[in-house]
């Protein structure tokens, strides 16, 4: 966490730099809030697609993550754009690139279990990534495809999305949050939001969160779970 007692010029310079380094921005953003009960600091509403090959294997996960308006405004502050109150995909391309590169340290917040066994190295580098800006709601949405290193063909596949440090709160969209693209008709989809499979524990104080690292697993209790069963 950035030292809040840094001199004004130094802190401003770092903040400007972090505007284009995404998850480092999250750290600065959290420091600016400064409330004892601040976690989480950023809210993401997501829709997910599981992508299937003709042979019935799953080839990847296509994410669409929409950030809350407060963080979106902070992230685009100072970015050059030609049209007032909107940004093109091209104008947001450098930020999108840094977004997906920074996500690697956090395992893309995406975890897979194949036939009940966790695969810690399931995913390859993201593909087809871009940021979109919605001028009506003033929010950013990050789109990217996370391919499996090898196609997955299994009776059960579980995907979880969460931030282990609970700095970012992920929530599935209310309507059509998950879809199977090209899946065999016999496959069955089930979705569980945080709290639906058991009560989450009460949140500790901010000092606890400040000591968490990217490898922490505290946020697993707030995970969004996608399960697919195929014959």
Description:
It is a single chain. This protein has helices at residues 8-18, 23-33, 69-76, 89-103, 206-210, and strands at residues 42-52, 58-67, 110-114, 117-119, 127-134, 139-152, 156-161, 168-172, 178-181, 188-192, 224-229. The protein starts with 7 loop residues before the first helix and ends with a strand. It is of the alpha+beta class and 231 residues long. The chain has one domain. It contains five helices and eleven strands, in the order ααββααββββββββαβ.
In short:
By secondary structure, this protein is an alpha+beta fold. It is 22% helix and 33% strand.
Which tags fit this structure?
disordered N terminus, globular, 33% strand, 5-stranded antiparallel beta sheet, 231 residues
Query: Got a strand count?
Result: 11
Tell me the count of domains: 1
Structural class: alpha+beta
User: What are the segments in which pLDDT stays under 50 over at least 5 consecutive residues?
Assistant: 1-21, 27-37
How would you characterize the largest beta sheet? 6 strands, mixed
Shape: globular
List the quaternary state of the chains: single chain
Between the first and last Cα atoms, what is the distance in angstroms?
A: 47 Å
| Tally of helical segments | 5
User: Into which percentage range does the β-strand content fall?
Assistant: 25-35%
Helix content: 10-25%
Radius of gyration: 18 Å
Helix-strand pattern: HHEEHHEEEEEEEEHE
């Amino acid at each position: 966490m950035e030292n809040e007692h840094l001199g004004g010029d130094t802190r401003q310079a770092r903040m400007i730099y972090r505007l284009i380094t995404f998850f480092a921005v999250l750290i600065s953003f959290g420091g600016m809030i400064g409330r004892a009960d601040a976690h989480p600091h950023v809210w993401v509403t997501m829709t997910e697609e599981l992508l299937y090959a003709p042979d019935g294997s799953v080839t990847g996960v296509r994410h669409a993550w929409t950030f809350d308006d407060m963080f979106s405004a902070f992230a685009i502050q100072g970015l050059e754009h030609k049209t007032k109150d909107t940004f093109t995909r091209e104008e947001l391309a450098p930020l999108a690139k840094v977004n997906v590169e920074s996500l690697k340290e956090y395992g893309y917040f995406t975890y897979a279990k194949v036939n009940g066994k966790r695969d810690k190295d399931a995913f390859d580098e993201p593909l087809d990534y871009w940021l979109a800006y919605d001028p009506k709601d003033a929010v950013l949405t990050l789109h990217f495809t996370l391919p499996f290193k090898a196609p997955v063909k299994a009776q059960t596949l579980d995907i979880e999305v969460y931030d282990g440090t609970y700095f970012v709160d992920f929530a599935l969209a209310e309507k059509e949050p998950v879809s199977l693209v090209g899946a065999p008709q016999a496959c069955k989809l089930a979705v569980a939001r945080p709290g639906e499979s058991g009560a989450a524990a009460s949140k500790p104080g901010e000092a606890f969160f400040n000591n968490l690292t990217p490898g922490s697993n505290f946020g697993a209790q707030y995970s969004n779970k996608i399960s697919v069963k195929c014959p």
